[in-house]
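Quick one, T. Sequence first:
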Amino acid sequence: MTEQQINRIKGVFFGQAIGDALGLGTEFLSKEKIAKYYPDGLFDYSQIVQDGHRKRWQIGDWTDDTDQFLCICDSILTANKVDEKAFAIELEKWFKRTRMGCGRTVHQVVSTPQFTQFPHQAAKRIWEISNRENAANGAIMRTSILGTFQFWDLQAVIENTEKIAKVTHWDSRCVGSCVVVTYIISSILSQDRLPSLEQIIAIGEKYDERIKPFIEKAYSCDISDLYLDEPSSIGYTLKALSAGLWAYFNAPDFIKGILRVVNEGGDADTNACIAGSLLGAKYGFDSIPEKYVEGLRNKSFLERKFNAFIDGLIIWQYPNLKVQKELFIPSDYEKWEFAIEVFELPFAWLKEVLIKMTGFDYPSGYAILSSYNNIVKKIWAGSKDEYPLYREIREIDSCVYIDNYEGPERATYGWKNLDRYHLEKTFNFRFNDKDLEKLGGFPNSLTIDH
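Structure tokens:
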């Protein structure tokens, strides 16, 4: 992954949460009520009135929209894939723990007996009971994360999105509106392009012909013409889609788009979190004014979730990384000294750290690196009497290691299952391309035997 892709994925995470937290301030309000509560408009968390609805959350809190977004995140981290039953389990745990703000459709589906075993059947049954008319926005509000997982494979993104939408919302309008959102995000990440109106319409029409007019209106109309505060349709999935798409098509930057959506009222937290995710992908995390990031009450928690998700993405993106290229350089090999020089920096850093940890001149140990930035997740140092390093690292997916198992006369330096970007990002340097060419290219797994 590139730095730009990572920055845009972070924009999706924080755009979701910021839109949700700001949108709470006008949720379920008409534009007339908004003018009364916020004469100059709502533009900061601190302004949010503490009426009967909003006082249930603290200033800077997100609501059930982002809670369920994070349920999807947790299910992916647990299952290492998108799985409807894994998500159903996380959703039920959240429902039993708090359920604050939970919509009627999600409440009905999750309350169905054996929901976690048969989530799709439960959702379809609740939809049929509604005379096949229920098309609420409870799936689209949480869906954006599915545009970032496996973003390099559009068909996988579509299948994953359908699978998770149908856990609670069976209607084709719900599924189609979710896929439109994740399709846009995936396209931005994988192709560095903004899908056109025609491409977005084509995706929506595969699911339901009723989606097209809402896409067209979002593209061509002023946001006031979407009537987001119209009481009878504020919870409609296509209304929420049109709000997010209006921002995607028309907003000149992240915060101007979010605030326009927020100040239209209606189901404003849902509308704004969709807009926030799309704008976060379009403009990136770095485009978000710092005060809106810092003002999130659980900013550190969200940061940890994001980092864990990114750390997993490199493994999910390159599941066969370990066999892509391996390089073994024995001590009597003519390129040994050259290889030591080319790959010196990670080992010099690790050796210095291990010496400080152990007090030994010739320590053994390893470091597990984060795939997101210059974070070392774990360092292990060998004991004084023995260095059972091979037993320690054999179960680790990726690390840098030094094994001085017989002192300085017999040392092994290496790493396993790391890509070039991973190492360069962590140690803030760049390998020389010509040097790597002499060694046959960058090795994902390296052993230099001294």
